[in-house]
Amino acid sequence: MSARVRSEERRAEIVRAALEVIAERGYRGASLAAVAERVGLTQQGLLHYFPTKEALLVAVLKERDQWDAVPGTQWRVDLLASLVEYNAMRPGIIQTFSALLGESVTEGHPARAYFTERYTRVRDSMAAVLRAEYGDRLPNGLTPERTAPLLVAVMDGLQYQWLLDPESVDMPGAFRDFLALLGEN
User: Fold this and answer.
1) Which CATH number is 37's domain given?
2) Could you tell me if residue 59 is inside a domain?
3) What is the reported pTM?
4) CA distances to 167, 169, 182 from 162, in Å
5) Backbone torsions φ then ψ of 174, nearest 5 degrees
6) Whereabouts does the entry annotate DNA binding, in residue ranges (predicted)?
7) Which long-range contacts does 106-110 make (Cβ < 8 Å, 24+ apart)?
8) Rounded to the nearest 5 degrees, what angle is found at the Cα of 116, between the Cα atoms of 173 and 99?
């Protein structure tokens, strides 16, 4: 095994450990020392792979986005419902993402730029999904661009409600209900 492959595997191991530590403690409560200890490195050894806590955070967020990617295709409305169902099977990942998103709205948070850019990209992607499904107007009369932020808000808002009270909130069912409001059957 080459040194490059070993290095990539070690980076992936560190990212997984960081995800766990952030899920347990939140970003502000997570330390590089705790991540390093979890993977059997010193903090200095960890800095060889990720020079700052912020660099590690961005790697964690990018890794999470990769899990939601649909290879070789574009999202469709019916696949969005599948994504919501998939998210309901991985509460730890959703909790970490939601905690980081919540923290990122504060000035100076290292993930603020990441989430701002991500939401621009996601809204554009959702508008394209809606346009492919409905054309220039949805059955409700709104354009895909006007509906996209609502779609994203419903997905994220349902995640928060589900994380707080999973017994009372049927996240996949509620999302399917929202799709029905858009005109999807």
Assistant:
1) 1.10.10.60
2) no
3) 0.75
4) 8, 5, 22
5) -65, -35
6) 31-50
7) 109/27, 110/53, 110/54, 110/57, 110/58
8) 55
Residue by residue, DSSP assigns 85-153 as HHHTT-HHHHHHHHHHHHHHTSTT-TTHHHHHHHHHHHHHHHHHHHHHHHTTS-TTS--HHHHHHHHHH
How many CB atoms neighbour CB 144 within 10 A? 22
Pair (32, 84) in one structural domain = no
* Residue with the larger pLDDT of the pair 47 and 20: 47
Question: 110-157: per-residue pLDDT in tens?
Answer: 889 889 999 999 999 899 999 999 999 999 899 999 999 999 999 999
Same domain? For 81 and 170 the reply is yes
Domain that holds residue 9: 1-53
Task: Report d(CA 68, CA 62) in Å as an integer.
Answer: 10
